[in-house]
Amino acid sequence: MKIALHVPCYINELNPEIARKTLLILRHFGLNVSVPKNQTCCGQPFINSGQPTTLPEQFNEIFKDYDYIVSPSSSCTSTIRSQELEVSKKMYELCEFLHDILQVRDIAKNYPKKIALHNSCHSLRHLLEGAPSELNIPYFNKVKKVLGGEIVEAKRDECCGFGGVFSVKEGFISYVMGRSKLDDLISSGGEVITGVDFSCLMHLKGIAEKDGDDIEIKHISEIIYESIFGEEK
Q1: What pTM does this model have?
Q2: d(CA 174, CA 168)
Q3: What is the per-residue pLDDT across 19-35, written as a single tens digit (0 to 9) for each?
Q4: How many CA atoms lie within 13 A of 108 on its CB side?
Q5: I need a surface site. Which of 74, 75, 101, 212 has the fewest CB within 10 A?
Q6: Burial class (CB in 10 A: 0-12, 13-18, 19+), 226
Q7: Quick one: pLDDT at residue 233?
């Protein structure tokens, strides 16, 4: 398989370690993974704001020769999936790729801390990595299967309030939604909160730090990386 790693803009700028660890996770499974240096934004901020953009078409040109494109972000993945592009069906979020293509299971079953999983809206409702409560279908969660072990979740699978431009335009509402989600996740008994979208986690972490909550928050790639290679000192 010829695989490309897509690095979301905000991860590249704010936490490139997530991209590095995602790359090492994929290579751990013996995959031929490249990181195209000319890659650009998927176009999500413009599409969500109703603005015209050619970024998805540029994305398609950059990644069209790969068999799979793997991204540590369900929101970027769902953006490309929503477009009529040659690469749309080749695009996978990291845990989705591990579950569906590599058939990985229980990779973090011996993780030393109890994990609380935040199911982001894009992963749950766009990619169907889990069963959204409003569909009233039998419960399943691909991310939990990949991780294994005792994974707790919030009681309600509601939005955390980030929503990209929404958190800028409706800051107070965004905060209240995030506060509610954070309380729900903390009350679940988890020692570390994780999820597949760094944007959601960044939002929750900002609220936790502002309000003085003593809770660890890590991207899913960091949890998987530590389960494979051990925690970096």
Answers
A1: 0.95
A2: 8
A3: 999 999 999 999 999 99
A4: 27
A5: 212
A6: middle
A7: 58
Which among 55, 63, 73, 93 is positioned nearest to 8, based on CA atoms?
73
CA distances from 96 to 47, 103, 221, 227 (A): 23, 10, 12, 18
Q: What is the pLDDT of residues 148-162, one digit of tens each?
A: 998 999 999 999 999
Q: In terms of Cα–Cα distance, which of 230, 18, 28, 232 is closest to 111? A: 230
Query: Residue 100 in contact with residue 74, Cβ under 8 Å?
Result: no
CA distance 212 to 20: 29
- Greatest CA separation found in the chain? 47
d(CA 59, CA 47): 14
Q: CA 161 to CA 146: how far, in whole Å?
A: 26
pLDDT tens digit sequence for 103-153: 999 999 999 999 999 999 999 999 999 999 999 999 999 999 999 998 999
